[in-house]
Every structure is written in C-alpha cells, then in structure tokens.
Write a structure and sequence with these properties.
Layout lengths: L1 E5 L2 E7 L9 E5 L9 H10 L1 H7 L10 E5 L7 E5 L9 H19 L4 E4 L11 H16 L7 E6 L2 H15 L6
Parallel strand pairs: 2-7, 3-5, 3-6, 6-7
Antiparallel strand pairs: 1-2, 4-5
Helix pairs in contact: 3-4, 4-5
C-alpha cells in the first residue's frame, strides 16, 4: 500500500477486492442502465445481493461521466456510488468524461457526508481505457478535488492486479513529487 496526504485527506493505493473495502462507500464502474454486468459491476451486484439491482432499476440510469448513489445492501459499506466511464475511443472527450466520473463521485460523497470512498480503475476493463493514461487522469482529478474544501478524509484506489497498481504508482509518485500530470 502507498499513501499520500492532500490537505486533511489521504489517497491510498492498494491491490485488492473492491467488494471487501471498509470505506463508507465504494464506486461501481457501471453501465448506463446501472444493471448487473461483468467486471466490477458484476462483482458489486453479486456481493450486494438483489436489493441493489431493485434500487438501481428505479434510478433512471446514468449518463457517461455522471454519478448516482444507492444503498450498499450486503456489502460492508453504507453506499454504492455508480458512475459510467467512457468507452475509450481516443477522442478528446475521453479524458474529460473520465475526469468527470471521479469528480462527480467525490461531489456525491461530500453531499452525503461520506468521509471515505474506494474507487476501482474506472473504464480500464472492458471499456478499454489505457491504464497509464487512466491512472494519471484519476489521480489528478482526486488530488484536485481533495485540494479544496471537502469532508472526505480517505480516497482509496483499489486496483485489480499488479499491472494496474504499478501504473497508478507511477502517477501517484509523480503527484507526490509535485509533478503536474496534465
């Protein structure tokens, strides 16, 4: 695990299972219908149980870059924040939409008095976003958000494997060294 402080908040990097985090909220890498699927969404819906899909089916879906919140049901968290990352196309909209996912999740966390939140590496699975670029966008967005007035004390990036961890570690070390990643 690696950790840095940004103001009164911390950013952590770990390799782990998003469904087993002890934070107030976990972020679901959702599809636009907020339906159970594969990858992170499948794991979160599977661990949470059928109540999550029942609630999600009433939220009216979610657009790319936006976020919605639900209860966490059988997960060890209080909330699930659902966000729809961009399907990577190489367009100039991709980084803006990916950044919006992180910012909008953090805003929802603040609005709901959530002090700790765990993110997966959004859009890097089946949506095809290159991990190195996604890591830079994610950590820069989180750093920027935590640099302002926020009630969030902990943001944990929960990476699926060592390759994702290493990519985030490079971006993380650049932030820690004060290097602007954009």
């Amino acid at each position: 695990m690696k950790e840095i402080e940004i103001g009164h908040s911390k950013i952590q990097l770990i390799v782990g299972d998003i469904t087993k985090q002890d934070t107030d909220a976990v972020v679901n890498a959702a599809n636009k219908q907020l339906a159970p699927g594969g990858g992170v969404a499948g794991a979160i819906h599977g661990a949470a149980g059928p109540g999550l899909w029942e609630e999600c089916s009433k939220l009216g879906g979610c657009e790319t870059g936006q976020a919605k919140i639900s209860n966490a049901y059988n997960l060890p968290n209080k909330y699930v924040i659902h966000t729809v990352g961009p399907i990577y196309s190489g367009s100039e909209d991709d980084p803006r939409l990916l950044r919006s996912c992180y910012i909008n999740c953090l805003k929802l966390a603040d609005e709901n008095n959530i002090s700790s939140i765990s993110f997966p590496a959004l859009s890097t699975g089946i949506f095809g976003y290159p991990i190195d670029a996604a890591a830079q966008i994610a950590l820069k967005a989180i750093k920027d958000y935590l640099s302002r007035d926020t009630k969030i004390e902990l943001v944990r990036m929960v990476l699926y494997d060592k390759a994702a961890y290493d990519a985030h570690l490079m971006a993380f070390d650049a932030i820690n060294a004060g290097v602007d990643l954009t």
